[in-house]
């Protein structure tokens, strides 16, 4: 019987290596180094000692992870840290900063699946039901825990900073304030939702509102963090992806360790599509599951450099100037993790799809009217699914998981705009505006007689 202490004596380890899967080098760094890129500027990847992990079989890991699911033993009650050996094996439990994130529910989207898509095995992984309302919590617990460890070791880190389209800054601020590390967030002025802006403000972060877009904030934060002892928390930082990947492991776990056929993830900076790939890959490689799902990265048509690259047959990559999109967390034209995403998609026979503003808002409304409350990014993923069903690529019997990345309540402004028909670019087909009625029974009865299927 597995228990969390049974392999205490065993030495699992991880290190940074340049992200270069097809051309591995000897270059490597300790996770206790403060470093974001390799000598020649490549992204880094956290590489686990797979041989050490493979000394235990799939059944061992399944039992171990299942034994920790949803309990309170520190830190394993977290969906991320219940997979600690696969995430940051060497960190002390006492250095971990966690809100017991993860363990999010997998919702059977029965009515939406049947009515809109004619499919019966559609699931939505509700990653947005989380401490700060988005799946960014999964990665931030890992990054802030490691920074906490580095500070205790005496490394000169005075604060942690990030550029953000909203959710990263909310997560960073919450995890930092929980352990008393100063957080600095660089936000594009007027490009994030009020619910996103209020979080770092309330959590006491230093909030810098810059008159530019996300890509502009990113350029500034990179320079500032190279000049001052501020730790860079953007998803360029490979630590976060180690936490994000646990959502994929959890999906397998929730299906009793069977990988689904398809997983659809909305993509902006493109760290997450790689993180999901890595989670599914580790499950298969370490014998917990038998196969890999095919991944779909769903982009907003207004910020679609990966989609255009995919359409060119992976021949012609250009960053784009991202245009405004309701899916504001993925309004990114120059994604830092482009190489990671391309590797992930090629390795699992993946697909890239896109959704226009009308398509993503209509898909979100259709889903909301069948039991969900979706954010616009989830709308992008649902719209992509609708298209892939129409094209016959995803079939009626395929088990499909849509990753819902943020809570719908973070995006009330765009929902209100849609339902009051205040969007001039398209018709808002499924709008459900409130009806103003005089406060007397006769007027109310008049409306009810018109609206209800009364005999
Ligand atoms: C960050 C984020 C994404 C996209 O993740 P990337 O790694 O940037 O591709 C999607 N949806 C929401 C709500 C996010 O916050």
TrEMBL record:
One of its GO terms (molecular function) is threonine synthase activity. Its EC number is 4.2.3.1. It is an enzyme of class 4 (lyase). Pathway: Amino-acid biosynthesis; L-threonine biosynthesis; L-threonine from L-aspartate: step 5/5. InterPro entries: Cys_Synth/Cystath_Beta-Synth, Thr_synthase-like, TrpB-like_PALP, TrpB-like_PALP_sf. The keyword Zinc does not apply. It catalyses: O-phospho-L-homoserine + H2O = L-threonine + phosphate. One of its GO terms (biological process) is threonine biosynthetic process. It holds the Pfam family PALP. It is found in: Plastid, Chloroplast. The modification N6-(pyridoxal phosphate)lysine is found at residue 136. Its cofactor is pyridoxal 5'-phosphate. Gene3D superfamilies: 3.40.50.1100. Its main location: plastid. GO terms for cellular component: chloroplast. It comes from the Eukaryota. Keywords: Amino-acid biosynthesis, Chloroplast, Lyase, Plastid, Pyridoxal phosphate, S-adenosyl-L-methionine, Threonine biosynthesis, Transit peptide. Signal peptide: none annotated. Belongs to the threonine synthase family. Homodimer. Catalyzes the gamma-elimination of phosphate from L-phosphohomoserine and the beta-addition of water to produce L-threonine. This is threonine synthase.
